[in-house]
């Protein structure tokens, strides 16, 4: 049977009874082909199919038997019983809505076929009454936060100290500690996600003709940037901002990386020839955070949060520059990290302060005075490891 008509005899089990599982598999395959044609990735398609099957299991019904009430109960279960995050529930809902749009589309004849086989037709079960809305611009958990400048300095100092401790103890793993220390500093210095930084290669760094003082590390080409759902990775270029960061890369490339052998392509390899895993980096950071006794809310992404926050609020970079550096399509996404005050707020605050100071005779006080904040953490020069492999 083609997807647009033809015989349905092969969907009948012995006795002439339609096989609903075979028909559902056919619809899901067709939906998968349609998503592939749109350029969506295999992981996204596999996850979307799994969500459809979850609603089938939850309701005990096939999709052509679903009603909005089935979707209501399922969504309530996701939030109230399973405790899924608002954003996760919305993604699940989006998969169901997309499936129903496909199955009910007049471009296909799935409803006609289900009517002939089972006497029921597909319907859209995600409506304006049960659709999960964006609750706010930022749906991140409020406990998550960026590293402070002081915490960054302590983190990087401990990473360097851990390398020294492993060397002095004679234990194996000194090179992996040095590697992970470089990963943490580079992730912060260029505002990278964990998957972006672990996939870096030596050739991704290049000079910036307008910033020659960074040497060979004035520009970073990020090839594994976060993509939209199911799409290919979105590359971007990130300009080097901190002079100490170029030194970190130089030291790692020339002192640490050659210990893995030649030739070297990946910037952060392992002794087995693969690249360092995300779990390994998260675990290393968690160990450092626990040892330092920092307040909760810090994870690997906190390095990226700190980068964005510090560029905008500590060092005064324009929000548009920060947006480009982070690879955000919309400035509203960047503001989630930086939360800068709107211009009218700043102007109004200055106006009221100016009037108050003038009335009190203290108009000579400078209103544009900025607090003296500590400098960015300076990376220590990495020592060449003399024992241990990861």
TrEMBL record:
Which PROSITE patterns does the record cross-reference, listed alphabetically?
Answer: TYR_RECOMBINASE
The record's InterPro entries line, in alphabetical order, gives: DNA_brk_join_enz, Integrase-like_cat_sf, Integrase_catalytic, Tyrosine_recombinase_XerCD
Using the record's annotation, list all stretches that form the Tyr recombinase domain. 142-351
Sorted UniProt keywords: DNA recombination, DNA-binding
One Gene Ontology BP term is: DNA integration
GO MF, one example: DNA binding
The answer to keyword Repeat applying to this record is: no
| Family annotation (Pfam families) | Phage_integrase
Q: Which domain of life is it from?
A: Bacteria
**Protein family (similarity comment):** Belongs to the 'phage' integrase family.
PANTHER family given in the database record:
INTEGRASE_RECOMBINASE PROTEIN MJ0367-RELATED, PHAGE INTEGRASE-RELATED
What name does this protein carry? Site-specific integrase
**Which organism was this protein described from?**
Agromyces tardus
